[in-house]
Amino acid sequence: SAPIDLAQLHSFHVALAQSTRVLSLLGAGLSASSGLPTFRGAGGLWRTHDATSLATPEAFEANPGLVWQFYSYRRHMALQAQPNAAHYALAELARRMPGFLTLSQNVDGLSQRANHPPAQLQLLHGTLFAVRCMDRELCRYGPEPNFVDPIVPALAIPTSGADPTANTTRHSAATTDHNHQPAQDLDISNISVPLDSLSPSDLPTCPKCTHALLRPNVVWFGESLPWTVLETVDTYIAQPPPIDLILVLGTSAKVFPAAGYIAEARAKGARVCVVNTDVNDAPPGGWQEGDWFFRGDAAVLVPMLLE
Ligand code: BJW
Fold it and tell me: What fold does the segment set 37-80+127-218 form as a domain?
């Protein structure tokens, strides 16, 4: 991390001490030092795998095996990871400030595992650890919590060591090593390989209707965020007194409507504090007078800011 500007840190501490209503908007950078790749940054999950080809309803329709393999890998990684000091500092702030609300774009479950008070945590993009039936009209099963890893045997994560051809040939359920290793042994390039050997019968099936596939309870591009979440956030923003601060932590702030909450909070008079390793990731609309920018690892900086 770059050396912290102590004058800026002091000015932020003064503002936080005078605040009663604070929003935080979390992104993948918050979990980066827990070992989970970000989406768009260096080493990002989607640098070699086109996001829109995996995180859309159309992709699931076209190749549910490939999309499930991607999510099975992400579930496995997230279960291996531990919350970091930033997750704990935010949970602690929530406990001491009733007017604090966290809006998390992260689906990794780490804020929950850091005991963030659930009433002050809104999951904008859902969670990896719940599933629902693809048949929303007749069946409507879920969302139901599900932490089983692998969720079905065919989605066990292959280890790169187990099969020397793992990085160049396609995996089938038959070549999968069920005694999987920690996530860091895994070569992510595996998931870009077409999984034409995975048939729908290998994939998680709805226990209620017993015929439709289950899907992860995340928000894909083109899908609406959960209505209850949108309503809770809108009510929080509309309700007086005005919001004092919005903390924008480890997000590229490129995905809407999440990124739009920064401007909404500003419009209510909030000052903006950004923590990011990349100085170029300005909030939408650019920097403004009175903003704070702390460059570096959120896991180091967030606890310093919130102490
Ligand atoms: C560190 C660090 C360290 C690294 N410390 N920092 C307005 C304008 C244009 C388009 C739209 C618009 N409104 C809606 C759209 C369309 C679309 C959209 O936003 N497109 C944009 C790409 C332009 N939005 C949608 O489709 C949304 N739905 C919608 O609008 O529905 C309308 C509707 C209404 C009614 C009925 C039907 C429809 C849905 C968006 C869902 C996004 N879903 C994903 C996937 C979730 C599942 C999964 O995880 O697989 O959410 S996309 C992906 O991006 C994921 C993330 O939550 C999200 C944000 O990414 P994030 O967290 O910011 O990660 P990165 O990688 O981008 O950034 C990491 C940052 O951390 C970087 O800045 C690093 O520098 C930094 N960093 N290490 C601190 N250690």
Answer: SIR2/SIRT2 'Small Domain' (3.30.1600)
Token pair of 260, please?
Answer: 């739009």
Per-residue tens of pLDDT for the chain, all 307 residues:
578 999 999 999 999 999 999 999 999 999 999 999 888 765 555 445 565 568 899 989 988 988 998 899 899 999 999 999 999 999 999 999 999 999 999 999 999 999 999 999 999 999 999 999 999 999 999 999 999 999 999 998 765 433 333 333 223 322 333 333 333 333 444 444 445 568 888 999 999 999 999 999 999 999 999 999 999 999 999 999 999 999 999 999 999 999 999 999 999 999 999 999 998 888 888 889 999 999 999 999 999 999 9
Domain residue limits, the chain = 1-36+82-125+225-307, 37-80+127-218
Distance 192 CA to ligand 1 centre (A): 21
CATH topology of domain 1-36+82-125+225-307: Rossmann fold (3.40.50)
Is the CB–ligand 1 distance for residue 38 below 6 Å? yes
Report which protein residue has its CA nearest ligand 1's atom 80: 297
Taking the C-alpha atoms of residue 102 and residue 299, their distance in angstroms, rounded to an integer, is: 16
Nearest-atom number in ligand 1 for the CA of 70 is 50
Task: Give the C-alpha separation, 24 to 17, whole Å.
Answer: 16
pTM of the model: 0.91
How many A from CA of 253 to the centre of ligand 1? 7
Cα 248 to ligand 1 centre (Å): 13
Which residue stretches of the chain are H helix? 6-17, 51-54, 57-62, 64-80, 85-96, 110-113, 227-238, 260-267, 298-306
